[in-house]
């Protein structure tokens, strides 16, 4: 580590930065030809379980774009398999033995992730050797509610009505399952930090399926428990309640340093809700990367303007990048954000084009 | 028509009602055994195109539950076929010739729906004969943006990235398509009113995919154009921007009498945004119908409490009913809403259980 704090970590702490840092959700992925080349040789599961390859695809977008953070290539379901879950991918997660009763919940183990998924921590070790200091490594986990969705529904779904109705029909069993997932994710994230991760992010991809009441009753206590288990770790915690525009006030109670904001809520409105003590990450619509350069530039400028002059903004998309995206549009995005915010505060310079 | 205005129509106009009226999105559908019996004999498309059968399944939930409004059984894609769209269902809409260029857009016709879908207006005629006065008939159409999603994407999708990227990549062609759809839906809704529909609803199922900027630039002008084409009709207009929590302020500019609210936003917050001049419709989470009766009762009471004592609340779910729902839970819901709100204002009586 050099003496100067990388801009991404500084922004997470709401400190001044020399420019607005940027990284991109799912930045290691199919839109990159170099990623597709690796995937020609191995399937997705093998890739996540082979430390050298996982590290390689994690680094690819850093090399190509000069992004300000790297995020471990893995899947949110990876640590769940060791609970006794029959997990496959097709291409989304498919659970052979979905949870339907209290007995199913009680049967699940809370293993030590250092024993069940050692390859994750090996990949982190390799990455800390190979990544430049300018690109800190983000470790991550799925939020308990989002993992719950897959475990109960048995696979991907538009409405996850099976998972949601389980909350209502079996609230006690649901809470036990959420707590088990919280404890496992806490241990998993802690082990990632011990292996060298420099920030930790919790993805709550399905938070937006819940009403504020349901979020407050079920999902939020489980996130709080996950993050409470990380107390004492000296690194930024990021929580992303996807599609959570109506949940943000509650989401601040998760006590994360940074909240991820999807593209539906302008950052000025998000800032007004979450307050000055929380940094925000987001929130360009991934579809904007399909626009001609001028229109894309307008959208980028709009995100920076909405973020405002205050510290504590990490630029990102409002959701994972789409596989049909042109990598050159990403290069343009990264350059715009860096150039237009270069200066004393790291906010949009109104003099720049 | 009797001299007394049915509670549903009165509530749309924010007049006092003897109890809070209730109907349920997708109330005619697969969760009802009597609907499944009809579907054993005919496929979905045949059902929508056979006036006697469409009328029969429309009436089924009125007979069973004593709901306060009926909604025509049909599909939002029905009037689109006449534009020159190669439409199938599998089971969601599948478009054989998706729109990809300005030329594709220009090739689409704006037909007279009275010629292309006469069966819709015949079904309305039958229904006005057969429905009780207590259950006014709602006609409906898809919002231009939501129809656009299917026409451009070519079928159902989680992200509709194809449709959204077309907005950004070809904004002029996108606007021409949205305008054509607005003009057709306007004519279609007007013809439904002329055939006897007593209220008109516009479903914007995919509004929630858009940021406020995108909504304001594309979806909203098209809804405004649709509703502006209905000026002079003396019946309530309902607009449902699904998942539109961050769009409501803009959605009021559509000038609908009623806005549908999904379950993510408590009605008190929705009311604060849309103001006293607009009625609200919603917003019980469809998953709550899977809860034991006591927990379901708590959720129903919570929706009524959030709606507040003011006039202008139509009870509904926050989204279409799920096919695995127990019809007895629906009967319980309807009875609770009616019993707990019976009185001078039609709002929740705090003395009732």
Description:
- Chain A is built from 15 helices and 9 strands.
- With 353 residues, chain A is an alpha/beta fold.
- In chain A, helix 10 packs parallel to helix 11.
- The radius of gyration of chain A is 19 Å and the shape is globular.
- A 7-stranded parallel sheet of chain A has the order 1-4-5-6-7-8-9. A two-stranded antiparallel ribbon of chain A has the order 2-3.
- Chains A and B meet through helix 9, helix 11 and helix 14 of A and helix 9, helix 11 and helix 14 of B.
Task: Give the largest interface pair and sizes.
Answer: A-B, 37 and 37 residues
Give the overall shape of chain A, derived from the CA principal axes: globular
At the first level of CATH, the class of chain A is Alpha Beta
- Counting DSSP H or I runs of 4 or more residues, the number of helices of chain A is 15
Cα-atom Rg of chain A, whole angstroms? Answer: 19 Å
């Amino acid at each position: 580590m050099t003496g100067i704090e990388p801009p991404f970590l500084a922004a997470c702490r709401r400190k001044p930065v020399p420019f607005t840092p940027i990284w991109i959700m799912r930045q290691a992925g199919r839109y990159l030809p170099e990623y597709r080349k690796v995937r020609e040789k191995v399937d997705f599961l093998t890739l996540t379980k082979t430390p050298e390859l996982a590290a390689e695809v994690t680094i690819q977008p850093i090399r190509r774009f000069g992004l300000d953070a790297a995020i471990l290539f893995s899947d949110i379901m990876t640590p769940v398999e060791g609970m006794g879950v029959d997990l496959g991918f097709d291409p989304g997660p498919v659970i052979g033995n979905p949870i339907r009763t209290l007995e199913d919940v009680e049967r699940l183990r809370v293993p030590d992730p250092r024993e069940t998924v050692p390859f994750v921590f090996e990949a982190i070790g390799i990455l800390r050797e190979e990544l430049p200091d300018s690109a800190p490594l983000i470790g991550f986990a799925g939020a308990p509610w989002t993992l719950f969705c897959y475990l109960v529904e048995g696979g991907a779904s538009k409405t996850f009505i099976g998972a949601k109705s389980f909350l209502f029909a079996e609230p006690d069993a649901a809470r036990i399952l959420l707590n088990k997932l919280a404890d496992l994710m806490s241990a998993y994230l802690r082990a990632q930090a011990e292996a060298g991760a420099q920030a930790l992010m919790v993805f709550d991809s399905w938070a937006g399926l819940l009403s504020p009441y349901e979020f407050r009753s079920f999902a939020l206590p489980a996130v709080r428990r996950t993050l409470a288990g990380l107390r004492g770790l000296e690194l930024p915690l990021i929580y992303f309640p996807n599609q959570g525009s109506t949940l943000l006030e509650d989401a601040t109670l998760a006590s994360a340093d940074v909240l991820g904001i999807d593209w539906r809520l302008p950052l000025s409105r998000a800032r007004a809700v979450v307050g000055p003590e929380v940094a925000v990450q987001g929130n360009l619509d991934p579809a904007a990367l399909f626009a001609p350069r001028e229109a894309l530039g307008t959208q980028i400028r709009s995100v920076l303007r909405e973020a405002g002059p205050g510290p504590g903004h990490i630029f990102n998309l409002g959701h994972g990048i789409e596989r049909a995206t042109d990598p050159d549009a990403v290069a343009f995005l990264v350059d715009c954000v860096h150039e237009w915010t270069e200066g004393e505060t790291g906010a949009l310079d109104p003099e720049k084009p």
